[in-house]
Amino acid sequence: MTDGWTYNRQRTLINFLVYCPAGLTFIKSVDASDVVKDAPTLVNLFFEVVEWVGPSNVVHMVTDNATNYTTAGRLLHERYDNIYWSPCAAHCLNLLLKDISSMPHMDYLVSRVSQVTTFVYNHITLLSWLRKRFGWMEIVRPAMTRFVTSFITLKSIYDHKPDLQALVTSKHYTNHKLSRTSKGKSFSSTILDNKFWDDCLIAIKVAAPIIRLLRIVNSDEKPSLGYVYEGMFRTKMAIKNLFNNKKKYKPYTNLFKLCWDRHLRKNLHAVAYFLNP
């Protein structure tokens, strides 16, 4: 399997690893900046690694799902018909969450949640008041690189609903000059908006089955290939059952179908599901 990343000097590194019954083993790290964008050149790097491991010892290669990797994976299978390629399921699910979070209503909701989090953490007087609340735990703040964190932040904000509503209705807040600023008024309006909380709950329920599947395929405890096929089906059905209304669930299931057809609809996943005890 490959794990590619770009560091601050804009150089692309690819880590090559082997997963086998003995566990996960690191092979080598390669600066692939000069070859990663060209599939024929990239596949030569794959050939080199496969030959080092031994073609008969490799049955499956996993990379991300960028076009160059997809083409390189196809060329790899053409040369070694015993080696199958598939994109990283975790990467595909992260992109699915990205697509969902880019839907206009979701994007607006995530933006409001980000504003709430920023407002709280930018004002120590509010944060200090909240930290005195019984059972207080820090709000999970969104990261720039993982789309799943947007939904985890949504869940974290929703869990803090009683604390945040207690804050904006407290004398500590209403008597403070912050409550009279434009951002303070917007913050109060959001926290006291029932539709905001209803939308948060829907977003959480939409993302929950995807995040559960993401945790399964991201786990190093056991092989996860056999869970992708059924996991995608169960996730899709969970969202259908959540809305029970075709007009409401169709925008989400269309994104699921796109992700499945483009990236994860592989014979390998079907066989792994069939053989999974």
Automatic annotation (TrEMBL):
<dbReference type="InterPro" id="IPR007021">
    <property type="entry name" value="DUF659"/>
</dbReference>
<dbReference type="InterPro" id="IPR012337">
    <property type="entry name" value="RNaseH-like_sf"/>
</dbReference>
<protein>
    <submittedName>
        <fullName>DUF659 domain-containing protein</fullName>
    </submittedName>
</protein>
<feature type="domain" description="DUF659">
    <location>
        <begin position="1"/>
        <end position="116"/>
    </location>
</feature>
<dbReference type="Pfam" id="PF04937">
    <property type="entry name" value="DUF659"/>
</dbReference>
